[in-house]
Design brief:
Blueprint (H helix, E strand, L loop, with lengths): L18 E4 L7 E5 L5 E5 L4 E6 L26 E2 L17 E2 L14 E7 L3 H6 L4 E9 L5 E9 L7 E7 L2 E3 L6 E4 L5 E4 L5 E4 L5 E2 L4 E5 L5 E6 L4 E8 L3 E6 L1 H7 L11 E15 L4 E11 L1 H4 L5 H6 L1
Antiparallel strand pairs: 1-2, 2-3, 3-4, 5-10, 6-7, 7-8, 8-9, 9-21, 10-20, 11-20, 12-15, 12-17, 13-14, 13-16, 16-19, 17-18, 18-21, 19-20
The chain binds 6-O-phosphono-beta-D-glucopyranose.
6-O-phosphono-beta-D-glucopyranose (BG6) binds next to strand 19.
Length: 319
């Protein structure tokens, strides 16, 4: 496994006032993207994981557990990358490897207004290849937009030289910070079909209006729309989640019993988080050698002054 080494190489020279490289022991080096006012994003090289996203008032928008543990364990919170999944460790190994800064990524069309972004890369180690015998290049661009929105673009290329295709499932396991889960509703997934992970992945159709939370939820919504809204009444804030190349959306909250059973999660923390995870779960993605797949996650937080209690979710979703 490509674990963090105690003697890391010198920090890369990031030639932008919008980026900072912060050295930390134990594989905890991070890159910080800075936007207008107090907007920022922190990315840990271990896991290629976003661990913080703050709005222009400096308020944290992502949930990170106070019990999150350090590498080589996966980090509970932020945006873990789940890849490649299958008969491997839960959620794949990408969230549990040391990524590198990609100094020379292949071109990716970028909005010229976006100044703060970083490109990371993960390639399998010898040990990874023993576990999952496929060669790949996984490029991840993390960008902080002018308005404080965050986007993650994944590009995965099959670099097998033996002509073999490979397939995988994928998720951006996004942990949102919410004021009180009982006051949150999710718009955009009503009437969708889902697989219920709590009922042996049986298929159901969502009934009723928006999704609200009263107990443990672990569902994979199939062919979910490209925009989903998480409406937090108490915070008067709506997260708008957009996705491309990722047909499904996992919705997860462990609730009290499971929370207590999780070593890296506080007993009551389930009240203040919700995972909505753009994903490709039902139908694995297949890549032939030389082929590349692209998936994108976009996040924005609509502030209360905009909502002022009058939020029309249809406008957020379709307007
Ligand atoms: O503990 P992990 O591996 O980070 O997974 C947390 C949860 O992640 C969700 O995506 C899964 O649907 C749940 O089944 C799982 O419990």
């Amino acid at each position: 496994m490509a674990a963090a080494t105690p003697h890391s190489p010198p920090p890369p020279q990031l030639s932008s006032p919008f980026l900072e490289y912060i050295r930390a022991p134990g594989g905890l080096d991070k890159v910080v993207l800075r936007g207008r006012r107090s907007c920022s994003v922190e990315i840990r090289l271990f896991g290629g994981q976003v661990t913080s996203w703050k709005n222009d008032h400096g308020e944290e928008l992502l949930f990170v557990s106070s019990k999150a543990i350090k590498p080589p364990k996966p980090f509970r919170g932020g945006i873990p990358i789940c890849f490649p999944q299958g008969n491997l460790e839960q959620h794949g190994f990408a969230r549990n490897r040391l990524w590198a800064i990609d100094d020379n990524p292949p071109p990716l069309p970028v909005n010229p207004a976006i100044k703060a972004f970083v490109d990371l890369i993960l390639k399998p180690s010898e040990d990874d290849l023993k576990m999952w015998p496929h060669s790949f290049e996984f490029r991840l661009r993390i960008a902080l937009g002018a308005g404080g929105d965050l986007s993650l673009t994944s590009r995965i290329r099959n670099t097998n030289t033996d002509g073999r295709p490979f397939s995988y499932t994928f998720a951006f396991h996004t942990y949102f910070s919410v004021s009180d889960i009982s006051e949150v509703r999710v718009e955009g997934l009503e009437t969708m079909d889902y697989l219920d992970n709590m009922k042996g992945k049986e298929r159901f159709t969502e009934q009723g209006d928006a999704i609200v939370f009263e107990s443990e939820v672990d569902k994979v919504y199939l062919a979910a729309p490209s925009k989903v809204a998480i409406i937090d009444h108490d915070m008067r804030r709506t997260f708008v989640v957009t996705k491309e190349g990722l047909p499904d959306a996992v919705v997860w909250n462990p609730w009290d019993k499971k929370a207590k059973a999780m070593q890296d999660f506080g007993d009551s923390e389930y009240k203040h988080m919700l995972c909505v995870e753009p994903a490709a779960v039902e139908k694995p993605i297949s890549l032939k050698p030389g082929e590349e797949w692209k998936g994108r996650l976009g996040l924005s937080a609509v502030p209360s002054s905009y909502c002022s209690g009058q939020l029309d979710p249809l406008k957020v979703l379709h307007g």
